[in-house]
Design the sequence.
C-alpha cells in the first residue's frame, strides 16, 4: 500500500462548489412511495397486483349491492318492483327499511313521545364521562359526573325523582360514616361505609320515597324496562356494566394479589367460576334461575339482573387484566411506597394502581369492547336488543324477508362505538406515555 | 477508586457530628429466616443518635436484609427491634409510624416514574403527615436545593441521570424529616462519575448530624464519615470497630481476607 501511495500522489483542488441538487425521479414523491411500498421486488410487485385484484373483486361485489336507489321505498315488494323496473337485478339492497325503522332499531318499543329522554341521556352521559376520560376539565365538573348516574336513571326509567335521589343520599351517608370512623379504626370505617348505605337502601329508602312522592309527586312518566330495546338497550347494559365492572375488577385483582388468605381464595374462586362459565349460561341464570332464589312474589327487573350478570362477568376478566398490570409494577415501587410510611390503600391508590392501570389500558379496553358486543347475547333471553328487533321487523308484512340491510346498519352502529373505544385507548396510551417521559 | 479518593480528599466539617447517649435503634437477639434459610443469626446492635454506621460484607451476608428489617420491609422472626423507643411488631400502626420516621434509599432509587420530581417529594408529606400542599412543596424545593437539583423539579424521574435520581431519592426521604436514614447500597447502580455526587450529598447529611446506617462498598466514605464499621458474613456480625482500627488492624481472619480482596486492586 505504502508503495502505491508514494507513487500516485496527484494534486487536486476544487474550484467550483457544487449546488444542491434534487434527488433522482425514482427517489421522490409518489414514485418513491410506490416503489418502496408496493413494488420493492418482483415478488412484492406480483403480490401487490394480486391484492389489488382481490380488493377490486370484493368491492365489485359489495358496492353495486349497496348502491341502490331504494331509500324512499316503504316495503320489500316495492323495492323489488322498482329495481326490476330499472332493469337491474333484484340482488340489491333495499334501504327503505332503515328509513322506515331506524327509530325502532335505536330505541326499541320505548314510547315515541319520550325519545327525547334517551337522546338527552346520551348527551349527559358523554358530558359526564368527559372529565373522567380526558382529565383536564375543571374539578367542579367532577360533581356533575358523580350526579350523572342518578340523572340518567331518572331520565331513562322515569318515575318519581325521590328513589334515585335517596340512593345517592345513601352513598353520601356511607362516605360520611367512613370519614368519621376512619380516625378510630380503618376496618370499622370500611365496614360502616359498606353497611350504612345498604341498611339505608333496604329499610329506609322504600318508605321515605313513597312518603315523599305522596307529598311532592315530582318526576317523569315511568317507563318499564320491557319497553327498552334496540341499540339503546345495548348502550344501557354496556355502559352500566363497563362503569360498574372497572372498580369491581380492580378490587378483585387487589384481592387476588392480597396477603390475606381468605380474601385471596375468595377472589380466585369468584374469578375462576365466573370466567369458566359462558356468558350465555349466566344470562339464562339471570333470567330463569335467579327467581327461584329470590323470595316468592319479588319481581326483580330482568334488565337489572342482566346488568348485574354482565358486570360480574366482565369484572372477572378485568380482574385478570389488572392482575397482569399489578405484576408488571416492579417490587421496588411497593417498597418505595412502604418505606415512606404510606398505608396499603394509599400506596395502591397513589403509586401502584396508576402504573398498573396504565400498563393494563389495552387489555381493559379490549375487555370492554368484547363486553359491549356481548350485550347482543341478551336476545336469547327475550330482550329486544337490535338483533332481536330484526325478527320483530321481519314479522311485519312490509319487510318480511329482509336480512342484510338491518345487519349492516346494526354492524355500523357497533363498529362506530367499538372503534371509538379503541381510538380512545390509543390516545390515552400516547398521552400517558408523553406525560411520563 | 477515583470517587473514593475525592471523598477522602474532601475537608469534612465535624462540628455537628456528635454521637449522643440517646438510643436510636436497639436490636437484640434478632433472627430471620427466608423459608428454611437462616439469613440473620442472633444480631445484637445498638445505634446511638448521631452515629454514622457503615455495614459491609460479601454479597449474601445479610447486610441489606438487616437494614430492611429496621423499617419492616422484611419481617424478623425472633428477637426485638426498637426504633426510637417503638417496638416493631406486626401492629400496622407502629410500622407506619416507624416508616415515616426512618428514611430509606435504595440501590435502584425506586422513584415513582408517573410523578414529577416535586410530586415524588411532596407525596408522603401530604398523604402521611397531612402537610398542606403549599408547605410541602416549599419544603421539597428546599431539599431539592440541598441536593442541588431544584431546576429538575418539574421533570419526570426517567429524564434524569442515575446520580440525579439517587439524589432525588435522598431528598424524597428527607422531606419526611426522618430521624434516621438507611442507605441500601446507594451507589452500586451508578457510574463512577455519579458516585461522587451522591456520596457528597450523604457526607453533607452526616455533617448535619443525621443518624445513618449505610450498606456500601465505598470504603473511602466509610473511612471519612463513619464512626463505626460493621463487617457481616453468613448472616452474623463478625467484627465491628471504629474505621481507623477496622481498616488498619482488623482482628478476624474473615475480615482480613475481605479487606484484602476489596482494597487489593
Sequence:
Amino acid at each position: 500500500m505504502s508503495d502505491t501511495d508514494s507513487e500516485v500522489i496527484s494534486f487536486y483542488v476544487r474550484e467550483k462548489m457544487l449546488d444542491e441538487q434534487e434527488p433522482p425521479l425514482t427517489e421522490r414523491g409518489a414514485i418513491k412511495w410506490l416503489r418502496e411500498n408496493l413494488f420493492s421486488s418482483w415478488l412484492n410487485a406480483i403480490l401487490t397486483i394480486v391484492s389489488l385484484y382481490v380488493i377490486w373483486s370484493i368491492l365489485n361485489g359489495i358496492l353495486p349491492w349497496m348502491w341502490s336507489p331504494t331509500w324512499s321505498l316503504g316495503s320489500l315488494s316495492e323495492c323489488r318492483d322498482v329495481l326490476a323496473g330499472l332493469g337491474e337485478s333484484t340482488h340489491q339492497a333495499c334501504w327503505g327499511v332503515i328509513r322506515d325503522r331506524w327509530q325502532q332499531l335505536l330505541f326499541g318499543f320505548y314510547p315515541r313521545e319520550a325519545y327525547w329522554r334517551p337522546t338527552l341521556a346520551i348527551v349527559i352521559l358523554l358530558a359526564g364521562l368527559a372529565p373522567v376520560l380526558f382529565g383536564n376539565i375543571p374539578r367542579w365538573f367532577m360533581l356533575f359526573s358523580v350526579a350523572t348516574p342518578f340523572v340518567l336513571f331518572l331520565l331513562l326509567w322515569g318515575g318519581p325523582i325521590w328513589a334515585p335521589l335517596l340512593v345517592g343520599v345513601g352513598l353520601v351517608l356511607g362516605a360520611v360514616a367512613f370519614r368519621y370512623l376512619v380516625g378510630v379504626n380503618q376496618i370499622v370505617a370500611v365496614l360502616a361505609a359498606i353497611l350504612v348505605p345498604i341498611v339505608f337502601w333496604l329499610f329506609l329508602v322504600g318508605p321515605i320515597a313513597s312518603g315523599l312522592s305522596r307529598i311532592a309527586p315530582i318526576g317523569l312518566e315511568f317507563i318499564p324496562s320491557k319497553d327498552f330495546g334496540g341499540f339503546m338497550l345495548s348502550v344501557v347494559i354496556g355502559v352500566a356494566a363497563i362503569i360498574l365492572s372497572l372498580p369491581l375488577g380492580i378490587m378483585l385483582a387487589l384481592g387476588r394479589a392480597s396477603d390475606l388468605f381468605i380474601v385471596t381464595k375468595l377472589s380466585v374462586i369468584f374469578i375462576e367460576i365466573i370466567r369458566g362459565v359462558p356468558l350465555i349460561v349466566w344470562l339464562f341464570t339471570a333470567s330463569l334461575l335467579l327467581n327461584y332464589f329470590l323470595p316468592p312474589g319479588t319481581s326483580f327487573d330482568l334488565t337489572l339482573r342482566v346488568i348485574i350478570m354482565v358486570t360480574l362477568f366482565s369484572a372477572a376478566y378485568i380482574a385478570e387484566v389488572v392482575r397482569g398490570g399489578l405484576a408488571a409494577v416492579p417490587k421496588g415501587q411497593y417498597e418505595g411506597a412502604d418505606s415512606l410510611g404510606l398505608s396499603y390503600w394509599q400506596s395502591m391508590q397513589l403509586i401502584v394502581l396508576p402504573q398498573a392501570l396504565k400498563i393494563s389500558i389495552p387489555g381493559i379496553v379490549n375487555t370492554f369492547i368484547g363486553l359491549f358486543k356481548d350485550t347482543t347475547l341478551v336476545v336469547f333471553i327475550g330482550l329486544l336488543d337490535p338483533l332481536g328487533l330484526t325478527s320483530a321487523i321481519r314479522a311485519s308484512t312490509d319487510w318480511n324477508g329482509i336480512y342484510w340491510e338491518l345487519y349492516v346498519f346494526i354492524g355500523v352502529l357497533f363498529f362506530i362505538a367499538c372503534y371509538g373505544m379503541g381510538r380512545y385507548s390509543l390516545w390515552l396510551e400516547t398521552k400517558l406515555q408523553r406525560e411520563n417521559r | 477508586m477515583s470517587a473514593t479518593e475525592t471523598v477522602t480528599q474532601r475537608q469534612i466539617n465535624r462540628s455537628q457530628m456528635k454521637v449522643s447517649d440517646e438510643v436510636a435503634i436497639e436490636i437484640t437477639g434478632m433472627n430471620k429466616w427466608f423459608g428454611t434459610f437462616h439469613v440473620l443469626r442472633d444480631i445484637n446492635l445498638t445505634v446511638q443518635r448521631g452515629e454514622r454506621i457503615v455495614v459491609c460484607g460479601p454479597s449474601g451476608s445479610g447486610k441489606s436484609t438487616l437494614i430492611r428489617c429496621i423499617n419492616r420491609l422484611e419481617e424478623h422472626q425472633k428477637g426485638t427491634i426498637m426504633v426510637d423507643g417503638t417496638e416493631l411488631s406486626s401492629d400496622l400502626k407502629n410500622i407506619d409510624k416507624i416508616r415515616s420516621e426512618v428514611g430509606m434509599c435504595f440501590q435502584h432509587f425506586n422513584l415513582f416514574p408517573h410523578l414529577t420530581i416535586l410530586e415524588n417529594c411532596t407525596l408522603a408529606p401530604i398523604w402521611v403527615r397531612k402537610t398542606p400542599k403549599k408547605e410541602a412543596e416549599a419544603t421539597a424545593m428546599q431539599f431539592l436545593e440541598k441536593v442541588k437539583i431544584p431546576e429538575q423539579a418539574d421533570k419526570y424521574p426517567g429524564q434524569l441521570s442515575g446520580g440525579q435520581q439517587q439524589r432525588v431519592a435522598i431528598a424524597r426521604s428527607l422531606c419526611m424529616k426522618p430521624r434516621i436514614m438507611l442507605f441500601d447500597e446507594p451507589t452500586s447502580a451508578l457510574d463512577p462519575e455519579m458516585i461522587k455526587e451522591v456520596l457528597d450529598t450523604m457526607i453533607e447529611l452526616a455533617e448535619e448530624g443525621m443518624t445513618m446506617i449505610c450498606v456500601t462498598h465505598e470504603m473511602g466514605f466509610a473511612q471519612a464519615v463513619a464512626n463505626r464499621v460493621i463487617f457481616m458474613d453468613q448472616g452474623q456480625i463478625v467484627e465491628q470497630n471504629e474505621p481507623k482500627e477496622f481498616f488498619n488492624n482488623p482482628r478476624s481472619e474473615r475480615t482480613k481476607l475481605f479487606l484484602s480482596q476489596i482494597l487489593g486492586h
